[in-house]
Write a structure and sequence with these properties.
There is one protein chain. The chain has 116 residues and is α/β, with parallel strands linked by helices. The protein is built from 4 helices and 5 strands, in the order ββαβαβαβα. The protein has helices at 26-41, 59-74, 86-95, 107-114; strands spanning 6-12, 15-21, 46-53, 78-82, 102-104. Strands 1-2-3-4-5 form a 5-stranded mixed β-sheet, with helices on both faces.
Length: 116
């Protein structure tokens, strides 16, 4: 059985970091989307998703992440990911997420590069 996804938000001066823990499937993806859309509605235009504690992302989860990226791009913002497992990193590359969102090896580098 897979664990339910939890999302924690850390607001920064110029954006926010979402920390995920658990399985990003349809339910987990919707939880991330709800948090991301709330932040976008609050004029946050830079989001970093730290997936350090996420080991599995299924196809529905990926499609929801793509929707979040598209919505943020439409608002003139950007989304980035950090701390991906090798399998998730490769999956994001294959599915094209890496074409629209930056991927960083660690959070420190991401925060510096994104100006958060």
């Amino acid at each position: 059985m897979t664990e339910e996804l939890r999302v924690a938000v850390d607001r920064k001066a110029n954006g926010a970091v979402l920390y995920t823990k658990g399985y990003i499937n349809n339910v987990g993806g919707e939880e991330i989307a709800n948090r991301a859309y709330e932040l976008m509605d609050d004029n946050v235009r830079t989001l970093l998703l730290n997936l350090r504690d996420t080991k599995i992302v299924n196809s529905i989860g990926i499609s929801i992440l793509i929707e979040i990226i598209e919505k943020m791009i439409d608002k003139g913002g950007s989304i980035a990911f950090c701390c991906l497992t090798p399998v998730i990193h490769k999956t994001f590359q294959i599915m094209g997420l890496a074409n629209y969102a930056k991927i960083f090896e660690n959070e420190d580098t991401a925060l510096k590069e994104l100006g958060l």
